[in-house]
Amino acid sequence: MKPINFKGMTAIQRLFLLRTLAIIIQLSTVLTVYFVMSLNIALLPLLAVIMVETVFHGFSILLFKKRAAGHYAIVIQLFADVIFLTVLLSLSGGATNAFVSLLLLPIVIAAVSLPLRFLTFISISAIGAYSLLLMKMPMHVMQHMDMSNHFIGMWANFLLSVIVVSFVVGAMAKVITNRERAIAKYQEEQLRSEQLLALGAASAQITHQLATPLANIQLLFDELHEDLPDNEAIVAMQHPIEQCKEQLAYFRTLATTIREEQKAPIKVDDFFAQFMDTVQLHFPTHPIEVNKPETIIAEVDSDPMLLPALLNLVQNGIRANSENQQNKLVLEAYCQENILHIKLRDFGVGIYSGLNKNLQNSLGEKLVKSESGLGMAVLLSNSTFSRLGGSLKLSNHPEQGSVAHVTLPLKNY
Question: Which residues does 27 contact at the CB level (< 8 Å), separation at least 6?
Fold first, then answer.
């Protein structure tokens, strides 16, 4: 028999499993007490309540079989459990029933599954149910052997138990949840670091392998240029070769800077001026509409990867525009609560085109395979912003295209 995987179950599924067990125990207990122990209990009313509870349980299972259950749905289910249990207790002794402490179970489930406001509602409901059972007890039972103080003490003990369960179990559940989230976040960051390390190692390997052929090409070019200085083809080769040499030298400098974690503050206005000059140099045929304050008196931490990270987003936007026969980008920048916000909008078909919905939230967090690639540029850009204390969020614009939202912490603002 395959064991039940509680860890892989949702909160509503665990609740349904516990209620199934509870219904079986309730029915077995009622039948045992009546037929085996021969105690005088209201058999038919008790069976009727269990039957109604079973019908409600079956309907709930069918309702949430293919539908996600939110907090409100779980609250309704737990509140129904409190009602059913209260009715069963009222038909079998009320507050004198030895199973009255079962009213704590919905509170425990709420403590580990629901936020504080819903936990408070279920706790108040259980306390109210116990109080109602106590108030409905016949006076002769309360007065017999002066049991009133005993039952009131039981009620106070139940109230104390509710408080302890609500605060202690709720706090423990919150700690465990936060810890699981922290572990999951750490694992995601570790996976992303491993991917970036692999990309960096591959880039360094390719760069090293290109250095020798490029040096040989440079030697051949120098010899040809001495023999045929006026040849048009040889003259045309000079600029591309110089560009390759400059890019290799830049990569070496960049790798050294990243390895030594060199950061330096830069004025926001100076950075935007540098960014716009670079965009106009690399993409002269793509106009960018800039909406930003005339002057931003602040600084941001920068390293050699910050500018290429933003250029990656511009290049992605230009590619998205070309796929949709558009030729416009909109850049919006503003400051809010010591944070610099940069929004770059394109007018393409949107970032989710051709991408599985389950992978939409993974853009920028890990390599995501799609028709246009693996999202490597976005991953590298997001890593740069995160290293500088910022973030990158991608979303579709409600009208057309997509928006890349970059945030960077401001200094001396």
Answer: 47, 50
Separation between Cα atoms, residue 111 and residue 313, nearest integer Å: 44
Measured distance CA(72)–CA(75) in Å, rounded: 5
Helix (H) or strand (E) segment spanning residue 4: none
Beta strands in 24-128 (DSSP E): none
Find out whether 334 and 292 touch, Cβ atoms under 8 Å. yes
Q: Between the CA of residue 98 and those of 39, 93, 101, 166, what are the distances in Å?
A: 15, 9, 7, 22
Angstrom distance (rounded) from CA 413 to CA 405: 20
List Cα–Cα distances, 399 to 59, 246, 348, 396, in angstroms: 41, 41, 11, 8
Kindly report the length of the chain: 413
CA dist., res. 81 & res. 36, Å (int): 27
Start-end of H helices in 137-169: 139-143, 148-164
Strands (E), 5-120: none
Give the CA diameter of the chain: 122
* Dihedral in degrees, nearest 10, Cα atoms 395, 396, 397, 403: 40
β partners of residue 291: 332
Phi-psi region of 405 (alpha: psi -120 to 50; beta: other; left: phi over 0): beta
pTM higher than the cut 0.70: no
CB atoms within 10 A of CB 133: 21
pLDDT digits (tens, 9 = 90+) for 26-75: 898 889 888 888 778 888 999 999 999 999 999 999 998 888 888 899 99
- 132 exposed, middle or buried (CB, 10 Å; 0-12, 13-18, 19+)? middle
